[in-house]
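To assess whether ligand presence alters the predicted conformation, the chain was also submitted together with 4'-deoxy-4'-aminopyridoxal-5'-phosphate. Input:
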Amino acid sequence: MDLLEKCRAYTRTDEARDDGLYPHYPPFQGPAGGGLAVLDGAEVCMLGSSDYRALGLNPQVIGAAQDAIALFGTSASGPRMLNGNMDLHEELEADLADFFGYEAALVFATGYMANLGVVSCLAGDGDEVYLDERAHASLVDGARLANVSGAAVRWFGHNDPDDLARLLATAPLRSVLVATDGVFSAEGDEAPVAELVAVCEEYGATLLVDDAHGVGLLGRGRGVIERAGMQGRVPLMTLTFSTALASQGGAVLADAKTIDFLRHTSRPQIFSAGLSPADTAAAHAALREIRRRSDHEPAALAAAEHLRRALGALGYDVAGGASPVIPVRFSDECGVLVAQRILLDHGVYTNAVLPPTCEDYQLRVACTDAHTPDVLEAAIGVFAVLRDDLLPHYRQAARAVLPRDRAPAAGGAGSHVRPNF
Ligand code: PMP
């Protein structure tokens, strides 16, 4: 069969477009990181942004990026190991290490590459990788590469340290990497870091926490490790700059020898260009801002708590914990697509997240520091209308037009297909 046949047979998105329910790649006209954004010429309440501290429009952050472009130009012009390294990178690494309490840090071009680069570089032949079953795709893909190099890969139950302990107790005695999200990107819940540390210490396993959605927010900006009181006891931490740090890029934090090893052997680091001057300087300015505000509870957390309670009181199936992410669950794809569309028609933008991106059918709602009380109340009002009047009507209409596999069905969440290691 022709290699591209699968692309021609891929009609799922065409069908959603034909139904007026296609939810992805919305072309915003202007910044999408504030409390409000402009889509199709209309102002919408933005409940999808991961710019949790709303620093993407902060004058200091923008000024730092502009200054960096003026001094260094727009490009890193090559991999850091050769010619793409700048003092901007090294200053950011020193401050990241200092703020998060590690000996050293290494900046990557994205958070995805940081996870890929750490897991695939550190685990190989004779090693074992244990992943939380809801771990982010970048940890999973790092494990896939490690698996190609001979590492065994296993899943433990979501946020279930007892399951991890049970698996490790029966595992052959090999070197083990345990990897988890800190705050889970779709579920919005927090890893039980203290319990995972205890299990890893008992079995001599090395713990990696990817705190993409906890840094800048929890634990005085230092994330879930600090919040759990586990500073100094999690050997590897990764983060992205594309959430609270309002930029692009990612980093790993560890002891100095591990960072030196990764600097010279991690393939996504050595075979890809360094982070651009503007992105590096913006992330650094955002880090300074977060440090400066670290004694104040982020407004995003209070906003999310308020919204979570309000949606729960309206009868929505909401999940999550003390994070800015609120998953609003639906029983099927149709419900999510229709709800996303109606909310948008009423001026509220949310993210439609479906399998295989996540386990459940959900609207992913996220709050930032930019959500003022009146914007939030207006959004809650739209959710109320959606529940009472619109959802049943639209679901009925959609049932008629949607192909059977996307129509509302009995049964719950979809089955997320995990790689079979
Ligand atoms: N880890 C987690 C938990 C994420 O949610 C994401 C995406 N936001 C990443 C890593 C990858 O980050 P980036 O966007 O910098 O590639």
